[in-house]
TrEMBL record:
Binding sites annotated in the UniProt record for Fe cation: 110, 114, 291
Cited Gene3D superfamilies: 3.30.420.40
Cofactor: Fe(2+)
Binding site for substrate: 133-137, 166, 179, 183, 271
GO cellular component: cytoplasm
UniProt entry tagged with the keyword rRNA-binding: no
Keywords: Acyltransferase, Cytoplasm, Iron, Metal-binding, Transferase, tRNA processing
Protein name listed in UniProt: tRNA N6-adenosine threonylcarbamoyltransferase
Organism: Gaiella occulta
Amino acid sequence: MILGIETSCDETAAALVGGDGTVLSSIVASQASLHARYGGVVPEVASRRHLELIGPVIREALETAGAGLDDVDRVAVTRGPGLVGALLVGLSAAKALAWARRLPLVPVDHLHGHVASLYLGDAQVEPPFVCLLASGGHTLLLDVGERGSFRRLGSTLDDAAGEAFDKGARLLGLGYPGGAEIDRLAREGDPEAYTFPVARVAGLDFSFSGLKTALLYAVRGLDADELERRRADLAASYQRAIVRALAGRLREAAARSRAGRIAVVGGVAANSELRGALPDAAFAPLALCTDNAAMIASAARYADPIPYPDYLALDAYASAA
């Protein structure tokens, strides 16, 4: 049994996962409402809230699974990338629990965790496949040849897809998190009302800065009444452009690699239009798209644990290697 802990951004999460990928519990305490007033995550606020929540969340994960710390065989925790202050809360808690019980500890890369969300439950996805990882902080195309590793095929040159959704939502006067707000409003609009650009950059990389600028100019060109009337159309057209870029690049990457299957993970994987545009793709379960600890415990099944007490000097890292 693996106890997973995740605090890379604004979700405090803990989970118990069995060795076969069975999710025994998955508890996520979101800070979305706390950061909504700022229009985005404030790192210091997130870190302080993690300190308040980490103990209760771990206790609830154990209680939900009907387990105690004596039942845990190893502890897994997100080491990075993410907000360093937030990561250190989870890492410190994980080291304390592992050290107190003389358990091994598995430091997990957050990106590997997202991919490993596909290895949980009954509908586990077997490599090889090409994976789109799209979230608030990352947009990557990955060639997954085996569980526990991947090769990067492409990434964003500027904004991540989730970041583009959040910034677009702010331009449209919508709430936070922006991706869910745009997805909701887009259902009421015409995705063909506006033609927004999809950047074509070299290789298999992405770029969303030009799209964001195009939305800015479109909004500026409308008076307040017209913006209110066209807000749903703008949201639908903007979302369509992002989805077109993500789905097109994923299929292009799959064709180049000759992979037999495609998959999508990360917070943007919850987007309804993206799911509709890729009916043949394997998607992370909706509950496991946003940051969670079950995916971290899942990734720990395919990583080497650090024995007690060698992990005490382990540090967090903010950026992906």
